[in-house]
Amino acid sequence: MADESWRLTLSEGLRRLGEGSLTASDWVRSLLERIEGCEGRVRAWVHVDREGALVAARALDGSGAGGRSHPLAGAPVAFKDIIDVQGMPREANSPLYKGYVPQQDASAAARLRAAGAILLGKTVTTQFATSDPPVTRNPWNFVHSPGGSSSGSAAAVAAGKAPAALGSQTGGSVLRPSAFCGVVGFKPTYGRIPRTGMVTVSWTLDHVGTITRSAEDAARLLTVLAGPDGGDDGSLGAAVPDYASASAPRRPGRVCFLKEDFLPRASREVAEWTERAAARMRENGVAVEEGRLPVDFGQLHAAHRIIMRVEAAAYHDRMFRENMDAYLPEIRHNISSGLMVPAVHYVQALRLRARLARETQRLLERYELVVLPSMVEAPPLREKSTGNALFQEPLTQAGLPAITLPLGRGEGNLPVGIQLGAGRLREADLLGAARWCEGELGWRSEIASL
């Protein structure tokens, strides 16, 4: 019988490693075989460290119980190709970084390595983690987009080529591709996971996030990844609990369904799925009340574009002026626009975002969660776009934790997701509610058949 340990979630694999019914080497070999068998169709990877992963797995298997004492010992993890991993290329899908190999890990990679994770390789990103479509295909329907900018990370997890991957989110770049690919995308409070050693898009908006096939997996990763870092001025110093224990499945009590802000802007299909999801929560004992965003949606979206474009222009400034032709059309437009934004408009956008964060946090002091769609519409055609980040922008701007769970598959066999958000540093509550939704409502990930 063929080894199908590639089907295991991160948590399932760790439990089997602990029981002794699986070795790290077998898990890694199974994943490498899965990658070899279907990578040509999905195109999720830019670099797979086959030999390095096998060497690390064999070392772990030979270390006995001492090696398995680390919280993620033997768990294979993939990395979006804007995150530095020692000895692996980091090119950010740009010819300007062609051949660059960092000599040290990003903080997130270093924490996973120290926790015993096996660093499997690098996944496709859009150029500089913005919005120009990459080569990656949606595993559920190859002519459609997997979303972006963490395109390869979401596609790899959905296709069973990695149990977990790291991504980044500036607008919707973890949750949107996760929703498009039918997996669990999670981003914590802004600054909870340090960004040291990563390519910057917008330093006041960038978040590190996880892509997995269960909320429990996200909790295990967060326990290792969270915590202060001297290299990231935005990192938070709050205590880090054991999120896997603190986020035991728990039915949420009172939630705010942001229906009027989001459903009129969604496609008919997405609106219907979201209405049914809210009804399922009510039927299962959750008090679902309708509410509104505290800031005008149009103003919020305009502010997001200004902040992101100005900060991207500041990061790329000299390199862009000297190498403009090396930039793809959408990022070229964004940077060019950012260079022309008046300072007063940038300051006004920052003030609006501060009000959004403050008043959304107040809303979430009255409710345990907010509920909203994960996507505006079904994944677009792959060559056209990576999709619209509009529905992720409010919680990204506010810097609040958010998660997307798969509801099922709709037209064209394409996944549809639901988004949940919680108050600042309430990741345990959010993940506990997500785990309850997975178990009681059946909102669980599946692996695409390839």
From TrEMBL:
GO MF entries: catalytic activity
Gene3D superfamilies: Amidase signature (AS) domain
Pfam families named among the record's database cross-references: Amidase
Limits of the Amidase domain: 27-431
InterPro entries named among the record's database cross-references: Amidase, Amidase_dom, AS_sf
Record's protein name: Amidase
Species whose genome carries this gene: Tectimicrobiota bacterium
